[in-house]
TrEMBL record:
<protein>
    <submittedName>
        <fullName>TonB-dependent receptor</fullName>
    </submittedName>
</protein>
<keyword id="KW-0998">Cell outer membrane</keyword>
<keyword id="KW-0406">Ion transport</keyword>
<dbReference type="InterPro" id="IPR039426">
    <property type="entry name" value="TonB-dep_rcpt-like"/>
</dbReference>
<comment type="similarity">
    <text>Belongs to the TonB-dependent receptor family.</text>
</comment>
<dbReference type="InterPro" id="IPR000531">
    <property type="entry name" value="Beta-barrel_TonB"/>
</dbReference>
<dbReference type="Pfam" id="PF13715">
    <property type="entry name" value="CarbopepD_reg_2"/>
</dbReference>
<keyword id="KW-0813">Transport</keyword>
<dbReference type="InterPro" id="IPR012910">
    <property type="entry name" value="Plug_dom"/>
</dbReference>
<keyword id="KW-0675">Receptor</keyword>
<feature type="domain" description="TonB-dependent receptor plug">
    <location>
        <begin position="110"/>
        <end position="215"/>
    </location>
</feature>
<feature type="domain" description="TonB-dependent receptor-like beta-barrel">
    <location>
        <begin position="451"/>
        <end position="955"/>
    </location>
</feature>
<keyword id="KW-0472">Membrane</keyword>
<dbReference type="Pfam" id="PF07715">
    <property type="entry name" value="Plug"/>
</dbReference>
<keyword id="KW-0812">Transmembrane</keyword>
<keyword id="KW-0798">TonB box</keyword>
<dbReference type="InterPro" id="IPR023996">
    <property type="entry name" value="TonB-dep_OMP_SusC/RagA"/>
</dbReference>
């Protein structure tokens, strides 16, 4: 097999050696960093190539022939070919902004023509990271972009751009090679050329009703002219739990539990003779050194007429809990053909197939008492003690092991894009695209029956009280078809440069889903523990009378008309105007169409004559934009068309006839939410482009919130409410080269964010979701509860304080503050007790290169937010394990003024309050990478163009103040920042290799 591979590679690469001499070299910037994609051509000939990802190239030429090297953003140079490996340094153009091209909605634009905030993330920043979802690697890299990661394999992160603008949706729109997507977990990071993060109104208005949450444009890799290139990269990593919550051990638990029983008037626990061990339940279910393995292979070939690229990838990602495994296979194929000088066609396909893990969490491991052993002497799982949580908490090990491999879920996605591009006249081109997105998910599951041992009674019982096996099955299909037809006209005359866009977009979406369950016959033979039988029609084991099935389906369509003008005069003055008219089938005829627009302007002061002789500024752009964006997300589809639900029944003779009523009152005047947004900023490049700085102030105000109002007797949707997000963004970078061997760079970004709900429906109207609230005058999702002033120290303290109607209380219980000052404690004294939205988000990076060695460090953090600790607070229904902080509980006057007495039987200390609020600020060393790039001298006599070895550490250190696994906690738009103690973010150490032939 190995000989076959080398023979195959030889056949591909041999033609490169058949004429002239192979000249090898590396193209680097002034900091010594390799430059990918540099165009290298021999004199005025047709012999050319492009530099690889690390700047290396090889080309057929004679020694002494002139090589011309060029790349957008750098000054072109010409050098004579040498027999020795060439080291070519390109100088960044002082006028980089005039040449750099970025991807925008429905096309590309020169960087200089932008009036807003678009941040480009190139392939280098995504590669060599052990992340199944590419967006995870962007955390901390972009000002204004919040990414809250989850440690669960295969689970999407919480992504928000410039705050939370709505109560129903937070994540941005992803545009992958033109098609609208909800996420990019189906993509392989190695197949991504770039990501553009669009944040301001002048870049978002072209997306109309989908632009409110921001847009992330993803461009797949395409072949470059010149040669066939094969790239293979692989890595293997090991994941472990970083910081673990501090819980009481066996002896500490017994001390606290007996004290609690005494406080409740109960005798000491009577079964310590049977429960007298010290079990760490986290360690029992934790998968130490969980593996994450990635393998990616790509082949590309480009000529003047045709460009072909194919990439395949596979990742196997184990979870931090035993028996969790996520498998993901991806492929990406695209081909572009220049049929003639004026006609180009292309096709692109992205595919994704995954085996989803059967996920668990650590919540039961945090709650289960440490004094019980996972198994008895005979190897049977022990039930938790009857008086210490057995009814509410299952044996964590039994939950993981006893139900292992009993849920088989799969997910697949296939995206296709076919386009035709016609150059009509010089500067005018038409592009028509048909795009399709087909997603499928299915799963089969089994609920087993197995026994556990009850130590107190020496009896055996079924786990969880479940005596019947059962099967579940589901299948979902989501299909999307999109058509884009665009005319683009670009013209330059004199000092004028403008680009016009006119387009039409049609989008159709359909969803069909079915699910069902069936139980075994009562008294019959169990359904086998064998996946061959896990179907609803599981004859002869399934009882057809227990079979239950459900289905859900919807479809919707939209049409859009769009236009844009980009105008630049003399490289100094820029104007950007966009318009989009969206029509949706989900709204009534009266409001079916809505208009969205923006206008932006910029002035590059550094280009003015009075700045001609200064040596400091290479660019000094002042910019601003204003626009109206849209948000089409709601809690249900077709909010203007309520469904029917069961109402009161009537009796006619001997028949009972059910009545059906509308689920809520119809409101034909509903329309989509609108976001009025503006931005003002400055961009600077200084000191020969070594220093760059950018700052912007933004304001996004969502109006006409699509609000569901439940007044008990009446329910309806209406457009009412307003949310504002505003703040500053700062981005800076310094790049410098000390000498030919050493260079370094430092970059960072910071964002301030102020979120405020201006109104909801009517004054006093509030929406609750657990401890979170949506109410006017507070940030969205604020934590709502009581302010703790301390602990009652004595009965005199109780008598001298405001009387409470919140429950039974006494010395040692939490003392809540009388917020409204009416001399009594009741529900009117609840207030905002925490804000889950950070005041500041930031990230910074450092890198250094010495000869072939490189080192990079990425940091990311937030400041000024709060976390609601939703674990370790005790329960009135079951006895949980204690946080070690409870060892400092109140035991008498003066012993504690924060940790209350032990009395979990009372709910008084468990009311949502500042006792559950923790500081959410943290700083995380997000990524460390040490790499070695083999020199071209060493590789000169091989087929290998470049070879890179690297060590990577992800999340090795976190500085935080919370008591749970991780300070990161995502969630829904109005309920986030709650730490349930469920799952940590892993620390990952990996080693990898990246080789190009």
């Amino acid at each position: 097999m190995r000989n076959f591979i080398f023979s195959f590679l030889a056949l591909i690469l041999l033609p490169a050696y058949m004429s002239g001499q192979v000249i090898k070299g590396k193209v680097s910037d002034q900091n010594g960093m390799g430059i990918p994609g540099a165009f290298v051509v021999v004199g005025n000939s047709s012999v050319f190539t492009y530099s690889d990802f690390d700047g290396s190239f090889s080309i057929n030429a004679k020694v002494g022939e002139i090589l011309k090297i060029s790349l957008v953003g750098f000054d072109a140079i010409s050098v004579a070919a040498t027999s020795e490996p060439m080291m070519i340094t390109m100088k960044e153009s002082k006028d980089t902004a005039l040449k750099e091209v970025v991807v925008i909605g429905y096309g590309t634009a020169k960087k200089r023509d932008l009036t807003g905030s678009i941040v480009r993330i190139d392939a280098k920043q995504l590669a060599d990271k052990p992340n199944a979802n590419p967006i995870v690697s962007v955390q901390g890299k972009v000002a204004g972009l919040s990414i809250v990661n989850s440690g669960k394999p295969g689970e999407d992160p919480d992504v928000r751009i410039r705050g939370t603008v709505s109560r129903y949706q937070t994540k941005p729109l992803y545009v992958v090679d033109g098609i609208f997507c909800d996420d990019i977990k189906f993509m392989n990071a190695s197949d991504i050329e770039s990501m553009e993060v669009l944040k301001d109104p002048s870049s978002l208005a072209i997306f109309g009703v989908r632009g409110a949450n921001g847009v992330i444009i993803v461009t797949s890799k395409k072949a470059k002219n010149g040669k066939t290139t094969i790239n293979y990269n692989t890595s293997v990593g090991f994941k472990n739990v970083g910081d673990t919550p501090s819980l009481t051990n066996g002896d500490q638990f017994k001390t606290l539990f007996d004290e609690q029983r005494s406080n409740q008037g109960l005798a000491p626990y009577a079964y310590y003779n049977k429960f007298n061990v010290n079990t760490n339940w986290i360690n029992e279910i934790n998968n130490d050194n969980a593996k994450v393995i990635t393998n990616n292979l790509s082949i590309s070939n480009g000529t003047e007429k045709n460009k072909f690229y194919m990439g395949v990838g596979f990742i196997e990602d184990e979870g931090l809990i035993d028996y969790e495994k996520y498998k993901k296979f991806t492929f990406n194929v695209n081909n572009e053909t220049q049929l003639s000088e004026s006609i180009k066609v292309g096709v692109a396909m992205n595919g994704y197939q995954s085996s989803l893990p059967q996920l668990h969490n650590f919540e039961s491991a945090l709650r289960a008492t440490p004094i019980v052993s996972p198994r008895n002497a005979d190897g049977m799982y022990n039930q938790l003690p009857l008086e210490i949580g057995a009814a509410q908490i299952g044996n964590p090990l039994a939950e993981v092991e006893g139900k292992k491999h009993t849920q088989l879920n799969e997910e697949s996605k296939f995206i296709a894009n076919v386009f035709l591009e016609i150059k009509i006249i010089d500067g005018l081109k038409f592009r028509g695209s048909y795009l399709s997105d087909n997603s499928y998910s299915k799963g089969r599951g089994y609920n087993p029956v197995f026994d556990v041992f009850v130590s107190e009674t020496d009896q055996i019982t079924s786990y969880g009280g479940n005596n019947l096996t059962s099967v579940n099955e589901f299948k979902n299909n989501f299909n999307k078809s999109q058509q884009d037809y665009n005319l683009t006209y670009n013209k330059t005359f004199g000092k004028h440069d403008f680009t016009l866009l006119a387009g039409y977009n049609r989008l159709e979406e359909t969803f069909e889903g079915m699910s069902g369950t069936v139980n075994q016959f009562v008294g019959g033979e169990p359904i086998p523990y064998d996946k061959r039988w896990w179907y609803l029609n599981v004859y002869p084991y399934g009882d057809p009378t227990t079979r239950f099935a459900n289905s859900d389906q919807w479809d919707r369509a939209s049409v859009s008309y769009l236009g844009r003008i980009l105008y630049n005069y003399d490289g100094k003055y820029t104007l950007n105007a966009s318009y989009r008219r969206d029509g949706s089938s989900e709204l009534s005829n009266e409001n079916r169409f809505q208009n969205f627009w923006s206008i932006g302007a910029a002035w590059d002061v550094a280009k003015e004559d009075f700045m001609k002789d200064q040596k400091i500024f290479d660019q000094l752009k002042v910019k601003g934009s204003y626009g109206v964006l849209g948000n089409q997300f709601s809690s249900i589809h077709y909010p203007s068309y309520p469904a029917y639900t069961t109402g009161s029944s009537a009796i006619f003779g001997e028949s009972v006839v059910p009545a059906y009523v509308l689920a809520y009152r119809n409101n034909p005047n509903l329309k989509w939410e609108t976001v009025t947004s503006y931005e003002m900023g400055i961009e600077m490049k200084l000191l020969e482009n070594r220093l760059s700085f950018e700052t912007a102030y933004f304001d996004k105000t969502t109006k006409d919130l699509l609000t569901f109002v439940d007044l008990g007797s009446e329910k309806f949707y209406t457009n009412a409410g307003e949310i504002e997000n505003r703040g500053f963004e700062f981005t800076a970078a310094w790049n410098d080269k000390i000498n030919d061997n050493f260079s370094y760079s430092i970059s960072g970004n910071a964002t301030t964010l102020k979120n405020e709900v201006k109104s909801v429906y009517e004054p006093g109207f509030q929406v609750f979701e657990g401890p979170s609230i949506l109410t006017a005058g507070a940030p969205i999702g604020s934590f709502y509860g009581y302010v703790v002033e301390g602990v009652y120290q004595s009965y005199a303290d109780v008598l001298n304080s405001a009387p409470s109607s919140l429950g039974d209380y006494g010395p040692g219980d939490l003392k809540y503050k009388d917020i409204n000052g009416d001399g009594k404690l009741n529900t009117e004294d609840r207030t905002e007790i925490g804000n889950p939205t950070p005041d500041v988000m930031y990230g910074f990076s450092m890198s250094a290169t010495y000869k072939q060695f490189s080192l990079s460090l990425d940091f990311q953090g937030v400041y000024g937010n709060e976390i609601y600790r939703d674990w370790g607070n005790g329960s009135t229904f079951a006895q949980f394990n204690y946080r070690t902080e409870r060892l400092d509980r109140w035991t008498g006057a003066g012993t504690s003024n924060w940790e209350p007495r032990l009395n979990d039987g009372s709910g008084y200390n468990k009311l949502a309050s500042t006792y559950m609020i923790e500081d959410g600020s943290y700083l995380r060393l997000r990524n460390v990478q040490f790499a070695y790039d083999f020199s071209s001298d060493l590789l000169a006599k091989t087929f290998i163009q470049s070879l890179r070895l690297y060590l990577n550490a992800q999340n090795p250190i976190t500085w935080a103040h919370n008591s749970g696994f991780t300070p990161e906690a995502g969630g829904s738009p109005i309920s986030f920042g709650k730490d349930t103690g469920g799952y940590p973010l892993p620390a990952v150490t990996s080693i990898g290799l990246n080789v190009t032939f």
